[in-house]
Amino acid sequence: MTTVASKQRAQVNPKTAGADTRGTIFREVSTEQQAVEQRLVDHVVASFDACEDPRLKELMVALVKHLHSFIREVRLTEEEWGAAIDFLTRAGHITDDVRQEFILLSDTLGASMQTINVNNAAYADATEATVFGPFFVEDSPAIDNGEDMAFGAPGEPCWVEGTVTDTDGNRLAGARIEVWEADETGLYDVQYDAGKRAARAHLFTEADGSYRFWGLTPTPYPIPNDGPVGRMLDAVGRSPLRASHLHFMVSHEGARTLVTHIFPKGDPIGWKDTVFGVKQSLIKRFEPQAVGTPTPDGRVIEGTWSRVRFDIVLAPAGV
């Protein structure tokens, strides 16, 4: 049998090769070489035998097995591994209190979205969750229902309204709603200044479970692409653009906290969202309003504006 060095890219005969469920042909290695590699996997896995935390042991053993399987499947070169270490090092250097490059990496590889899927199982008609993103902050200003969360951020005004209920249809009073979004230039407040607060706020539902506020009509924007994640996207021919969206985080006693967005119908980016956050149920019609159209609360707006309804259904806690 032919021995294939780790830096070669020879392919095995498809009639005799192993293949995964998608038909990927694994590169041929000798029986002896496979045994050497498997002995190392077994040795590393055994190093966790004394771990007293069962969950930690499960995570580490699975991580090692999958990592080694990847290295062996693609016959990773030392140069490629060195490039990966350099990539992660640069991601660490650019990360600070505002810029989180590792979240961007997780998002653009779909890992964030898959973790959301795993931890937010479908339940009845509960609103679907999507990615958290790197720009949430804890100290958002409080607003009353009907007030403006833009705080002067540039963009077309948007009237947002809806209700929060549980999956039995009961309206939830006092649900906390955190909202945040980018302005029309594609930047979040903290990207201008770590202490700036605009186009973000929190409010609480009324006794009948209703909420309403003024925000901005969402527009597409690129994720920060001046770092290693941006260079990775460029190298593989992917756009850094996110679909237009408005963030929500909704919580209520006895309910599963929901982190989600809503996306305008007809958005030019849409399903090409670089972090894979779009779900069909979260696409909403942001209805354009012509100049001079009366607003729901009598606010005078000189230009155009939009409005959208988003009724939120929270799943029970623990499901």
Automatic annotation (TrEMBL):
The keyword Nucleotide-binding is assigned to this record: no
Top-rank taxon, per record: Bacteria
Domain Intradiol ring-cleavage dioxygenases span(s) in chain numbering: 160-188
Gene3D superfamilies: Aromatic compound dioxygenase (2.60.130.10)
InterPro entries attached to this UniProt entry: Catechol_dOase_N, Intradiol_dOase_C, Intradiol_dOase_core, Intradiol_RC_Dioxygenase
Cofactor(s) of this protein: Fe(3+)
Family of this protein: Belongs to the intradiol ring-cleavage dioxygenase family.
Protein name: Dioxygenase
